[in-house]
Amino acid sequence: MSKFIIRGGRRLSGTVRVSGAKNAVLPILAASLLAEEGRSVIHEVPLLDDVVTIREVLISLGASMEFEQERMVVDASDLRSHEAPYELVRKMRASFLVMGPLLARAGCARISLPGGCAIGTRPIDQHLKGFEAMGAQINLGQGYIEAKIDGRLKGAKIYLDVASVGATENIIMAAALADGTTILENAAKEPEIVDLANYINAMGGKVRGAGTGVIRIEGVERMRGTEHTVIPDRIEAGTYIVAAAITGGHVYVEGAIADHLAPVISKLQEMGVDIAEDENGVQVRAASPLRAVDVKTLPYPGFPTDMQAQLMALLLTSEGTSVVTETVFENRFMHVEEFKKLRAHIKVEDRCAIVNGGAGLVGAKVCATDLRAGAALICAALKAEGISEVTGVQHIDRGYVNLTEKLAALGADISRVDETAEREAQEAAAEVLEEVAAQAEQLVPVAAAHAQPSEEKSGYTREKEQIPVLNKVQPTWA
Ligand SMILES: CC(=O)N[C@H]1[C@@H](OP(=O)(O)OP(=O)(O)OC[C@H]2O[C@@H](n3ccc(=O)[nH]c3=O)[C@H](O)[C@@H]2O)O[C@H](CO)[C@@H](O)[C@@H]1O
Ligand SMILES: C=C(OP(=O)(O)O)C(=O)O
To answer: Model-level pTM?
Structure first.
């Protein structure tokens, strides 16, 4: 088990480079299953735990995956399985994104039910509704969803009850190889969906209207591998913008696409943060004091739920009372109780959190319950007085590449400690101390016998001799 140790109070300054988007690369890698011939070369692939998981899923299906320095080469020409097992899907819900492409390519798919997670129940009814509308038969058996179709999926008109990101992606991928045209209404409009559509089109697909509420997918018979560069991660970028603002810093977030961040940038500007964009990124200069603002999470282009926790951290340092309303997930305030350990004043009422800013944050031991809760706790800890320890690092590793290194390069006092290694080091050091003490014990009578003049006269005592020796053997973690 690892943890982050952060001493708050340092202003961040300098440049931080944004990595490729987690939420774009996951569906893109799933979509590479659509290519019956050729290899796909994907650039700007972030080295994240979720990417490792989707890679394992694709390998288990028969794809070959080479990964080197943010470049993934996928060859899915020979698939040998249509099943994504529980062990992989339970690690990451987004594994369910292989259902659409598998069904389209192989005519069948068997995927472990993804289930809920800390932030909500997260049903998949809209994905299944789309596949059924295209003619697939869906069965639920022993924790798995099984889908199959005789021949090809058929193009259909599908209206999503909720503008689900995952359902939109899964249906686009299924429809890409279907017979006929699919019209997807009330589709999600996130930039990651546009990136997926661009990738599919480069593979020979025909997807039009991605980024709007109506997407038309004309099915094609075959697709081939292609080359694609993943868009920068808008949530990672937004997190660094908040980290800069909360510390009163001055940071250039290189690679951030301001358009993708419009709802975040506009909220922060309303708070008084100075943000300027250019073609390569955004410049953040914090002002003080910051103003309280109200915010409501919504599907894109509304304020992203994946930035709600980080914005709440910033609101804790503003003057006045803010109301944060979460409309996308029903249980996404888990960070509130952890913020309270840092002496935050927040009250949750149903889907709203009432945040009283202005109270100074004080470092404490806190736990990340999910990915963005973890990012928000780190932002708050960067501001808090004294030392904070953030556990639950496995959640944060799902979505942030080299977080410690990136923040440290901006001047943050942050380190990552592996608790197992730390405990082993402590045990080893304790053993050394015991051994030294035992040896010293044996040497004392010998030293006393040779002592000239006597202890009493010289002022020599056993304690005085031993203490400095033992102190020298301080372990590095002390
Ligand atoms: C890998 C990835 O891209 N993850 C993102 C994706 O998750 P994900 O694709 O899972 O999120 P959805 O857009 O599907 O979920 C939005 C809402 O719709 C509901 N819903 C969804 C599907 C369905 O069939 N039925 C249904 O009711 C969900 O419970 C949730 O309340 O979009 C979320 C919303 O922006 C982000 O927080 C996640 O970071
Ligand atoms: C909720 C998130 O991801 P996922 O959908 O993969 O759980 C996130 O990225 O904040």
So the answer is: 0.90
